Amino acid sequence: MTEARYLRSRWFEDIPVGEFHVFGSYTFSEQEIIDFGTRYAPQFYHTDPEAALESRYRGLVASNWHICATWMRLMVDYMENYALGVEDGRRNGAGLGFQDLQVFVPVRPGHTLIYSHEIIEKKEKIVSGKWGIIRSRNEAVNHRGELVLRFHIDILAERNPALL
User: Fold this and answer.
1) Are 28 and 62 in contact (CB under 8 A)?
2) Cα–Cα distance list, 105 to 52, 111, 147, 151 (Å)
3) What span, in angstroms and rounded, lies between the C-alpha atoms of 131 and 107?
4) CATH number of the domain that residue 37 is part of
5) How many C-alpha atoms does 71 have within 13 Å on its Cβ side?
């Protein structure tokens, strides 16, 4: 796989299957895990380091939603960085939903995840007259090289009107 810069302005037809991007990395702190857990996933193994020692995780762990929200932040920042200055009107549309969301190993305070994205399929179906569907595999690997997160997402990408 060759890493390519993500250009939000490309037409559906110009985005190749196999394109691979690393969105970035993120280190989870104990306080962030507790804060996110307290606000959005208030289970004791996300919010209380002492009580979490008695859980099946044997310590504090990040919520799976925290892991996914971090993917979203890094993905948007990465894409927006390369969309600056684009004035030709081409754009990507909304995501159509996650499929096959899996979390394989817990994320603990101090763990660093590297998030990546690969285009694995393009569906030739035209949606609303001008959108194609791109499927990507999204993953996060921890500092030990262990696969932590994997899911697929379908995204709308604008078709080139000259080719419709």
Assistant:
1) yes
2) 16, 11, 7, 14
3) 37
4) 3.10.129.10
5) 24
**DSSP helix/strand/coil, 98:** strand
The one-letter amino acid code at 133 reads I
Mind listing the pLDDT tens digit for each residue in 124-145?
A: 777 777 888 999 999 999 999 9
Domain count, the chain: 1
Q: Which long-range contacts (CB under 8 A, 24 or more apart) does 58-61 make?
A: 59/108, 60/30, 60/33, 60/34, 60/108, 60/109, 61/33, 61/106, 61/107, 61/108
Mean pLDDT of 44-51: 98
Query: Are the C-beta atoms of 115 and 24 separated by less than 8 Å?
Result: yes
Would residue 2 count as lying in a domain? Answer: no
Could you tell me the residue range of the domain that residue 80 belongs to?
A: 12-163
Task: Tell me which residue has tokens 């919010």.
Answer: 47
Alpha-carbon distance 76 to 98, whole Å? 16
Structural domain contains residue 134: yes
pLDDT score recorded for residue 161: 82
Is it the case that residue 33 has pLDDT exceeding 80? yes
